[in-house]
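Re: Re: ligand-bound prediction request (bumping)

Still looking for help on this. To restate: I need the protein modeled with zinc ion bound, output as structure tokens. Inputs repeated here so nobody has to scroll up.
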Amino acid sequence: MKIREVEGDIIETTGGNSYAYAQKEIINSSEEVVSQVGAESGVKYGKPLIPILVYEESYIVHFRPNRTWKGEFGFDWVRNGTDSTVQVDERYSDIVGKYGMHYATSKKAKFIKSFQEYFKCVKEYNVISSIREKYYIPFLTLLGGQEVTLDLYYRISKITDSVEFDYNKELFTVILNQSHPSEEGTYYNANAITIRALKSFNKNQSIKIVKIEDGIKSIVGELVIVKNGEIKNVKILLINVSYPTIDGQKDISPEEILVLRNSLNQAYILPDIEELSDDLVVESNWYDEIFFTAKTKGDKKVLDDSNIRSIVHYFDDIFMNEKENDIYNMYYRIYSVPNSKNLNGIAGGVGNEKAVVVFGNRDNTTTVSHELLHAMGLYHSFDNDAGYTFEIYKTDNIMDYSHHKNKNRFTTTIWQWRKLNDKL
Ligand SMILES: [Zn+2]
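Reply:
Sorry for the wait, this slipped through. Here it is.
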């Protein structure tokens, strides 16, 4: 308890916002009048903000992916911006919010970060109750037989008697590649721990780090490994489209296939990928007729955005109208078509879609995955409909546009895994 007694007035002025937080009641009482005056809307009622209270814990360990991680496994954590070495690591409390009336890609777009949205988002993660500061437990997806090497970040203000791992030894092997620090301080141990899933499991598992002090055990770090007992299988067909007078069609490369497999594996989806042996030859003048439709400026035809999605259905209708292609009805169909003016790829819509298009002039290896994940139900990470809305270009999520800013995009989140795979 802290008590302050002042005989005269107390005046506090701030140029920005002023917050007062309490875990229990806030009481303002006066022998005369209590006035609360707000110029705009007076006194507001609503859900309280929860303050981020920072306590100094004596021993904390965080699991983090290595800097060389390219998405070979799913790893999702509440980004803090200070405790990992990955290329893109923006603090979530700075980049979760909502866009205003203009879409994020518009020049007029305005992003407003929101603590309410942030707190909704971090509820996706479990916390360790024995740690007083908010320790959000990361999620890892690991297939049976798969092995992963992770980093450990330590913050130690008091060294402890001993530290051990607690996990199901029938399901995992855990090898510590570097011994725990023996002195106080902060340590980032790259490739510190190797975890192998020996088999499949139908319940979420966890690997806990436990410190023992004076015979008392307490959890100082944890990682959840999402149940991998039920894998979802999908069939994918790659279709090369050729058009007599426009070239620039580019086959989907082995690297793009690898990125695609990785991104699906993150959500425990195993794709069976086939390539159609013959090109789909398109006769009509699709480029003019579909890309450059209604709008005419002077004697030039101008891209009409409203019709872009119809490109996907245009190709898909030609292909699926052939009776012999009925066998591909259940497949996701990726059409690789000649160059576009300025598009890498396009999905027919978000969710309940089977077809996507990628263009020959696509400039990065993640377009194929990005478009397919749209078809499978994922919005852009910066879309107000995405569940949680992140500021554009600030994440390494496959559904962001960060590649425009020379940032690699290859990750997906726990809520995206659940959306892609209803078995999770
Ligand atoms: Zn997109």
